[in-house]
């Protein structure tokens, strides 16, 4: 599928025009005002991973869909990101709750639902699935809060928490596939996404220990009784596993991107051999949980 597609900033500028004038100034200051990433003045500067920006294109590789159809799903995917990032920051207590942010959150959710329903052409199904993924995300927040209170989390609970917390982020692409792709393609993509989400979250949790210590009084590596370097290495192995699944399902562009991302250097705690071995073991435990 060729031709330029809307960027995150393109989609955000359009979304701003649909908000009430009283909220546009506050919304325009995102993502910087919610501290999603340091120094970012735009969504494109903040969300740098191509798979996160344009996941529907990876899903559509072998579908032969038109550029116009893909663009509609990409815009819907972008709107899911705008909503999901803001909702996650509010739920985690990483930003101060204000009436304006709450109002913007609700409008972002409504915009995602509307654009996804228009792209998929199945508003009842879309609304049901979006509501289900958001319930999963709220349950994941409960699991996380309980884990920090208890100062521990099992491998099984961590895997469940991550997949439930981030499942909303792949829904738009899954529905894109569901419009024409074979059932086997949908299953392969879904399984690939679960491993990708788990791998990316392992990496994020490994590097966010200082921020989590500040907000929650602990961090995920401590809860899992492992080191940040081991958790990061486990993430790398899970992304490599996701690549194998993607390639086996015919998603070759996605597999190539995953291969490149898995080769990115990760944290090191000095003993590289021990970290590699422990990361492989942790990845295997998370896969089987």
Question: How would you describe what is shown here?
Answer:
With 289 residues, this protein is mainly α. Helix content is 75%, strand content 0%. It is built from 16 helices and no strands. The chain is globular, with a radius of gyration of 19 Å. The model has no long low-confidence stretch (mean pLDDT 90).
Which outline best applies?
globular
Number of helices: 16
Helix-residue proportion: over 70%
Stretches where pLDDT is under 50 for at least 5 consecutive residues are none
Q: What portion of the residues fall into strands of 2 or more residues?
A: under 5%
Which radius of gyration do the C-alpha atoms yield?
Answer: 19 Å
Mean pLDDT: 90
The structural class is mainly alpha
Main beta sheet strand tally, sense and closure: none
Order of helices and strands: HHHHHHHHHHHHHHHH
Oligomer category: single chain
Number of strands: 0
How many angstroms separate the termini? 36 Å
């Amino acid at each position: 599928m060729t031709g330029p597609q809307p960027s995150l900033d393109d989609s955000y500028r359009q979304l701003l025009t649909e908000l009430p004038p009283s909220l546009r100034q506050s919304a325009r200051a995102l993502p910087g005002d919610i501290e999603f990433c340091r120094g970012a003045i735009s969504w494109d500067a903040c969300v740098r991973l191509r798979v996160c920006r344009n996941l529907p294109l990876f899903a559509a590789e072998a579908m032969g869909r038109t550029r116009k159809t893909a663009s509609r799903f990409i815009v819907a995917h972008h709107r899911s990101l705008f909503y999901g990032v803001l909702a996650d920051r509010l739920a985690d207590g990483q930003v101060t709750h204000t009436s304006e942010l709450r109002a913007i959150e609700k409008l972002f959710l409504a915009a995602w639902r509307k654009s996804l329903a228009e792209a998929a052409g199945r508003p009842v199904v879309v609304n049901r699935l979006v509501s289900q993924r958001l319930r999963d995300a709220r349950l994941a927040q409960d699991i996380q809060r309980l884990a920090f209170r208890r100062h521990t989390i099992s491998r099984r609970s961590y895997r469940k928490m991550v997949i439930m917390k981030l499942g909303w982020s792949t829904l738009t692409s899954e529905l894109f596939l569901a419009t024409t792709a074979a059932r086997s393609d949908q299953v392969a993509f879904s399984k690939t996404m679960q491993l990708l989400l788990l791998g990316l979250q392992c990496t994020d949790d490994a590097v966010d220990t200082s921020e989590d210590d500040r907000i929650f009084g602990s961090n995920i590596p401590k809860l899992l009784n492992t080191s940040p370097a081991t958790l990061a290495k486990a993430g790398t192995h899970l992304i490599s596993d996701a690549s194998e699944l993607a390639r086996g399902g015919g998603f070759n562009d996605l597999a190539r991107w995953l291969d490149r991302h898995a080769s990115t250097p990760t944290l090191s705690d000095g003993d590289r051999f021990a970290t590699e071995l422990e990361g492989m073991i942790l990845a295997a435990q998370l896969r089987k949980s």
